[in-house]
Known about the structure:
Largest sheet: 2 strands, antiparallel
Strand content: 5-15%
Number of helices: 10
Strand order of the largest sheet: 1-2
Shape: elongated
Structural class: mainly alpha
Order of helices and strands: EEHHHHHEHHHEHH
Radius of gyration: 20 Å
Amino acid sequence: VPAHFACLGQRLKPFALGHAMSLEAYGVANPESLPDLVLAVLICTLEPGEFGRRANSRLFAWQVRLMSWSINVQIWWTLKRKGIAAVNELVKGEFERFANYVRHYSECPEFRVVERSTDDGEGLGAPFIQHVRVYLMEKLGHTAAQVERLTYGDALLDYYTSLEIGGHLTLIDDKAADEAEALAAEANSEEHHKAVIEAANRMGGIGC
């Protein structure tokens, strides 16, 4: 049964790679202000890739104004009845809901790199999300539409599984949970992503 998430009173679509790409493109992958959160939520209420087609429409502008008005009314009412501390908790809760939503759909097995390059390099040639997108299309035969609709966790699982089949990664099962915890802090680092991409390139590369 699919999980259902809502934020700022809006029902969110399952978080897909297409949503992650749009959040990155509009600079709200990690929203830090309420306007950023509003934009991130609106992106994720639509089908993957649909936001770019709607962003300049009058209907979308009306939706933004309506959501902003609704939030301001809720904040004003909470402030009037319960004070500023309650307002802070309200806003904090909305940020936490969005973070939990992204986290839920981004789950994938922990893994470690079997072999690392000794070449220091100069960092990634493309954003990691873009690299995953192109890899899935060129190496696994997905279409652009199929890739954008994959949940973020499924996209990463396909990517890492392909590398494991090539002998460059080892996916860690539940029995290796202790080791996985030690690697968790490394999993999202640029150095780690660089090592993964180098492993992919040793399988034939995608020209990143």
